[in-house]
């Protein structure tokens, strides 16, 4: 029997508190075990199951996390994350799809202490808005571009065509941020470099590995080194630089998939031999700095770039934030072209600078993780600059919510 003193969880927590613990290095395995015991005692508590799903995925237990998420969504499709500051200024309906942590925009990580209520609405297949829609002031399509989201986004385009409330990040524009689509969309922009992410099948790569055809025969004009990654992968999973023919066979043995992205490798190292990758966001077309990672390796992730351990790297990142206006001005036309071509109100960009000074774009995605959770004693510069991002996002939401979408249709 359940403990009579225990009250079932009624608050949906989102991603932010668990990401904060993860960034701080907190081991919350025991928390997951405790939540699982409580969820078994209260099997009808959908919020608790949904929180547990997020915890499991943060612990890299993807299969279990998705199964638990499915159990929660079988009970309900709407989860409420009330604003920290009440009364709320805005009720934002966030349209989501079931999936892992990369499937949807983690907006709560930027709105932890805001006055905006977040209403998570997980759409259903075929009839995306079949469940009762809660009262709201604006809609945000919070879905990332991926193969599994293509059909839901198309369905939402029809469902939201005459929606009575303003729609932010309209569904018809999101597919342009998919890796291949973005690499085609952003070609031929002065001052912007992006390598086409071309599809290549495993069978073709195997023929290259077996010396049946040269790489240039499989992909005209391409030579080593190249970059390979499985189609549909995120977070650098399966991403590798391939420098020679033997490396192709080794890669295929290590990374099983049917389809891959193949791109040219661009050496974007600086004069000191280090690589620098920037994460910025465009909010209503205005660029804001989110972080800068510095590494001796070309494949950079902030968590493994040594930023937490190296004071000099953090000082350089602080200078990047301080002088970001110069960076934005230097790449003004390239950033403007990204906004004009994608037409997305909110968009994350991972990028660098080429040795010729162009903006080198690796990826664009409205669902990139952006947060202000790094420890202030280690990153004293971040809170001030990330507050600019949070303020700009809030302003975007409030301004767009005040629009009259019906007038645009008349």
Oligomer classification: single chain
Q: What is the molecular shape?
A: globular
How many beta strands in the DSSP annotation?
A: 14
Main sheet: which strands, in order across?
Answer: 1-3-2-4-5
The whole-number mean of residue pLDDT values reads: 93
The rounded distance between the terminal residues' Cα atoms is 60 Å
- Helices and strands, in N-to-C order? HHHHEEEEHEHEEHHEEHEEEHHHEEHH
**Percentage of residues in helical conformation:** 25-40%
Helix run count: 14
Ranges where pLDDT stays below 50 over 5 or more residues in a row are 1-8
Task: Characterise this structure.
There is one protein chain. The chain has helices spanning 16-23, 29-41, 46-58, 62-75, 150-159, 179-185, 202-209, 215-218, 245-254, 311-322, 324-330, 332-342, 382-401, 405-409, and strands at 78-81, 90-96, 116-122, 138-141, 167-168, 192-193, 198-201, 226-230, 240-242, 259-264, 275-283, 286-295, 346-353, 359-365. The chain is built from 14 helices and 14 strands. It folds into three domains: 16-174, no CATH class; 196-264, ATP-grasp fold, A domain (Dna Ligase, domain 1, 2-Layer Sandwich); 275-401, ATP-grasp fold, B domain (D-amino Acid Aminotransferase, Chain A, domain 1). The chain has a five-stranded mixed sheet with strand order 1-3-2-4-5, with helices on one face. β4, α5 (150-159) and β5 (167-168) form a beta-alpha-beta unit. The protein has 410 residues and is an alpha/beta fold. The chain is 35% helix and 19% strand. α2 (29-41) runs antiparallel to α3.
């Amino acid at each position: 029997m359940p403990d009579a003193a225990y009250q079932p969880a009624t608050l949906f927590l989102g991603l932010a508190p668990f990401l904060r613990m993860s960034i701080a290095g907190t081991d919350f395995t025991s928390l997951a075990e405790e939540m699982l015991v409580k969820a078994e005692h209260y099997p009808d508590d959908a919020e608790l199951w949904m929180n547990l799903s997020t915890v499991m995925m943060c612990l890299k237990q993807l299969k279990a996390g998705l199964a638990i998420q499915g159990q929660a969504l079988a009970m309900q499709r709407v989860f409420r994350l009330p604003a920290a500051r009440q009364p709320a200024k805005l009720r934002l309906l966030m349209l989501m799809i079931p999936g892992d942590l990369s499937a949807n925009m983690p907006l709560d990580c930027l709105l932890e202490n805001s006055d905006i209520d977040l209403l998570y609405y997980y759409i259903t297949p075929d009839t995306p808005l079949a469940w009762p829609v809660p009262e709201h002031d604006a809609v945000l399509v919070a879905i990332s571009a991926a193969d599994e989201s293509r059909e839901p986004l198309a369905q939402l385009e029809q469902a939201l065509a005459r929606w009575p409330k303003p729609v932010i990040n309209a569904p018809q524009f999101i597919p342009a941020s998919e890796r291949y689509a973005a690499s085609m969309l952003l070609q031929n922009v002065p001052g912007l470099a992006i390598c086409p992410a071309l599809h290549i099948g495993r069978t073709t790569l195997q023929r290259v590995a077996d010396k049946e055809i040269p790489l240039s025969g499989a992909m005209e004009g391409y030579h080593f080194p190249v970059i390979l990654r499985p189609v549909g992968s995120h977070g650098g999973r399966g991403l590798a630089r391939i420098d020679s023919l033997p490396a192709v066979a080794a890669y295929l043995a290590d990374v099983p998939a049917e389809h891959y992205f193949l791109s040219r490798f661009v050496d974007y190292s600086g004069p000191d031999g280090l690589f620098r990758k920037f994460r910025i966001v465009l909010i209503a077309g205005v660029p804001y700095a989110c972080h800068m990672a510095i590494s001796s390796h070309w494949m950079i992730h902030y968590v493994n770039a040594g930023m937490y351990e190296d004071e000099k790297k953090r000082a350089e990142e602080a200078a990047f934030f301080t002088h970001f206006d110069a960076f934005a001005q230097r790449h003004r036309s390239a950033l403007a072209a990204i906004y004009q071509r994608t037409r997305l109100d909110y968009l994350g960009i991972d990028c660098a600078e080429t040795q010729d000074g162009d903006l080198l774009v690796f990826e664009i995605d409205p669902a990139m993780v952006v947060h202000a959770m790094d420890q202030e004693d280690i990153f004293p510069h971040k809170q001030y600059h990330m507050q600019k991002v949070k303020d700009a996002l809030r302003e975007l939401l409030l301004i767009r919510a005040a629009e009259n979408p019906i007038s645009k249709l008349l």
